[in-house]
């Protein structure tokens, strides 16, 4: 007797229209990444061999890199050859027709060449005028930063991006932000000098074993101290915000698409949090074109809840932003909580989170996501979340530097998303876009690590790949939509420092694995003598000072057991870098490079809002 074949689950059962926003991105074949890395290795070998063996090139570029002019000392990696090899490789595999690929490659390489030439001419001018030349290591570092900047800028220019939106930018907090940054920087500089003048034998030992990647002990001491003091400042701010209890009625908006496997746990979590909260809790469950039994499960469970009232709404148009906006339109309370359908909040989440909103300066609040455990990536993801949300976000809040509060769990003042026109659709990062614009209105963004929730972690490689490609692509989507905060004449710390840094860091992360490969090619190919190219410079890309910051983040948050997960986190960071590269390959390119730098807010009025004064609707 023949048994009927079981119906297999689709490979991308977790995917949705938000996985690859139409017109802006596309799916990337699995073989593209390895093929790009293979081509990159071939190009690197060819360029290194050519520059180091052809007599005229060897004479023109005595450093072994594409650098002209005088210089001091030596460097570890031929950064410019690396950047050019990567640019060409990316252009071959980017999503475009052959003509667009050529234009992208030329734009990348020529723009980088012009900037490097300007740097070299500056070095020559310094040598001729004041008889001083830059160290080759400094030239290499600056070249790398220029390469990262060119790559992120050209993706913004030539990539198909969401349309920009005019923004209201509050500048009233700039003085306080700059004062805090200046005071902490001066103190940490003094601390680093003070320690160095005594004994830094331990630091030198770490440096010699690649843990610092060869960076100077002073830099090593400054960075952890800087983030530690920012963290302490963020904790003090949070304590001041929580001086009063506050428990108004709230709404909970839950958008869901095919979440029947977990939605009961999500609702039970809301029920437990509502039981510990004095205000009334209304759940607005928004079914977003589900094709499974999600709604049936919600109706069954909601009948059993005692502390949370559940309303079921239906949004037939696919897309999380559509579901969120329908939920937002139904909110009747002054505050609402947005949570993902795969997020299980802990019992004190509402109780602690809402206390911040007694202060009318707070516009949005997030917390610390916990991993459910048992999955392939759960332990590494937990370290990642603690480092980002448990330390960096707390510290950045002290200097108005938070860009995004993740949409897994966010509490909003209802008036703010409404004034801003609701959540942006057809792009990735609608949660980051919303919180960034709220922050630029002059409201404080807070991330409290004590507001905790369990958020689903992908259990398969395919699911993790889909998630991270969305997340990493959102950096460019948000920067393009909110480019006014970067390129307008109005200055905010978030717009002029943090968001540009995020773009540079995205480019750096996309190039991390190619850089590691390039370092090993130079090392084992003996394109540089072993006394110049230290293996620790290559290993530092994998380890380095960021790992020591991770240790600090785990300790100050009391997650000592998670220190054992650091080796997994090292591997996860590499995988994360690979997904960033694939995410950049998924961006659709256009023929021309439209201007990203015009001041779209040239005619906008900058608000000078007093503390406690709400933003007027016409200004937002």
What gap, in angstroms, lies between the N and C termini?
Answer: 69 Å
The third-level CATH topology of the domain at 239-460 is: Spore Coat Polysaccharide Biosynthesis Protein SpsA, Chain A
Mean of all residue-level pLDDT scores: 86
Count of DSSP helices? 22
**What is the CATH superfamily classification of the domain at 239-460?**
Spore Coat Polysaccharide Biosynthesis Protein SpsA, Chain A
Ranges where pLDDT stays below 50 over 5 or more residues in a row are: 1-12, 209-215, 529-533, 603-612, 614-620
Helix content: 40-55%
Derived structural class: alpha/beta
| Strand segment tally | 8
Radius of gyration: 25 Å
Q: Give the overall shape, derived from the CA principal axes.
A: globular
Please tell me the CATH architecture of the domain at 239-460 by its name.
Alpha-Beta Complex
- What's the arrangement of strands in the largest beta sheet? 3-2-1-4-7-6-8-5
Order of secondary-structure elements: HHHHHHHHEHEHEHEEHEHEHHEHHHHHHH
- Beta-strand residue fraction: 5-15%
Largest sheet: 8 strands, mixed
CATH C-level category of the domain at 239-460: Alpha Beta
